[in-house]
Design goal:
This protein is about 65% helix and about 0% strand.
């Protein structure tokens, strides 16, 4: 039996999630280039990819590394498809407002 895990602070958890996503992006991009998402922007296909990972997370449980990995791979999949959506359709609405309330930002391309 393993020792109980001490919960991480919210700030530490955000840093760890972002660090994991950065590393996974490097791996995922070598496996599937950004062009893959650009060519597969059908929300039904995206749902299938994400559901496969979320189903694994449910089966394994989040208390084991395999379940947490599956959850994070679902998140990475959504992030890559969101980025493909921006590349193909334009800017996202301003964040931090209720769902359905749309305010578009002033376009600024970095």
């Amino acid at each position: 039996m393993s020792a109980p895990v001490k919960p991480a602070s919210a700030q530490y958890a955000r840093i760890m999630v972002q660090h994991w996503l950065d590393g996974e992006r490097e791996y995922a991009t070598t496996k599937l280039p950004d062009q893959f998402e650009d060519e597969h922007l059908d929300p039904a296909q995206v749902r299938q990819f994400v559901d496969q990972y979320l189903d694994r997370a449910v089966v394994f449980g989040l208390d084991v590394p395999q379940g947490r990995q599956a959850l994070m791979k679902a998140l990475m999949t959504l992030q890559r498809f969101a980025e493909a959506t921006v590349r193909n359709y334009g800017l996202l609405p301003v964040p931090g407002v209720p769902s359905g309330e749309i305010t578009m930002p002033t376009p600024r391309v970095p």
